[in-house]
Amino acid sequence: QWTTASIVDETVAAIREQIGDRRAICALSGGVDSAVAAALVHRAIGDQLTCVFVDHGLLRSGERAQVERDFVAATGVRLVTIDAVDRFLGALAGVTDPEEKRKIIGREFIRVFEQAARDLQAEAGAAGEQIDFLVQGTLYPDVVESGGGTGAANIKSHHNVGGLPDDLQFELVEPLRALFKDEVRRVGLELGLPETIVHRQPFPGPGLGIRIIGEVTAARLATLRAADSIAREELTAAGLDRDIWQCPVVLLADVRSVGVQGDGRTYGHPVVLRPVSSEDAMTADWTRLPYDVLERISTRITNEVADVNRVTLDVTSKPPGTIEWE
Ligand code: XMP
């Protein structure tokens, strides 16, 4: 009988065995997998672990604080945050093609992480030590899928920390390799991680960058972040978080629509709500959200978010639509 506590104990013992008194680094994304992997490794080796969080400016409202404040408070992990917002926005300037955006974000992420790893390596070297291990939150389904090759992975280029250069050769530590997502969440709760992280819905690595249809700019990110945060607040208040797989909010930044507000004409942008139900994200159905919830989200977004004067609902299943718009 595998209890969550025994999974934690066994995994922590195995990590100690693998790493011994050496050092490890881990990239945190704000998501549940990297957070739980890091928390397990931290429990095993304490401050021999350093976590790196790259803020690419494409996160949702409150997510940086969830990592920097809540995760650190819950675990005591040693965290280095790299503020790379300007760098990512610079690299994305003028880019509208979805695949190009994904490649740029993935490439910049790896470059920033590499530089952070080099800096930490130099710091360890000065103390006569070395970082030998890289922690990754690979789950059992990822292990199976990369062996199986369904082809679905090629529809969009997903990004993760892989393919590091020769001078950064790390041995991998993958404490979640035998676990499914629900077990990872239980382990996270057992380790005392905040609910906001443990039950976070899936969020793509390229973040809000692929939820702005058109060029990504700081102003558009602020608009989307505000709309997204209202949608999430209302879905949570309605108790719907566990019923939906995720609900991307998409800003149609290159589309404008005419509206009326007060006595005046507005000429703003539409956002799209994309609530989906799914088991594994390979297929999905659009979620039949209650009309009153839709109404509240729509009223609040059009009232509270300057620049957005229309809220639309995506009623496409996957296939033929993907969950994200880009
Ligand atoms: P699609 O849009 O392909 O999305 O139907 C399926 C699931 O994957 C998430 N997604 C990503 N996750 N890196 C990620 O870690 C990515 O580049 C990426 N692109 C999409 C998406 O949110 C959905 O849950």
Automatic annotation (TrEMBL):
It catalyses: XMP + L-glutamine + ATP + H2O = GMP + L-glutamate + AMP + diphosphate + 2 H(+). GO terms for molecular function: ATP binding; GMP synthase activity. GO terms for cellular component: cytosol. ATP binds at residues 29-35. Pathway: Purine metabolism; GMP biosynthesis; GMP from XMP (L-Gln route): step 1/1. Its EC number is 6.3.5.2. Residues 2-200 form the GMPS ATP-PPase domain. The keyword ATP-binding applies. It comes from the Bacteria. Keywords: ATP-binding, Glutamine amidotransferase, GMP biosynthesis, Ligase, Nucleotide-binding, Purine biosynthesis. Catalyzes the synthesis of GMP from XMP. Homodimer. This is GMP synthase [glutamine-hydrolyzing]. It comes from Saccharopolyspora spinosa. The gene is guaA.
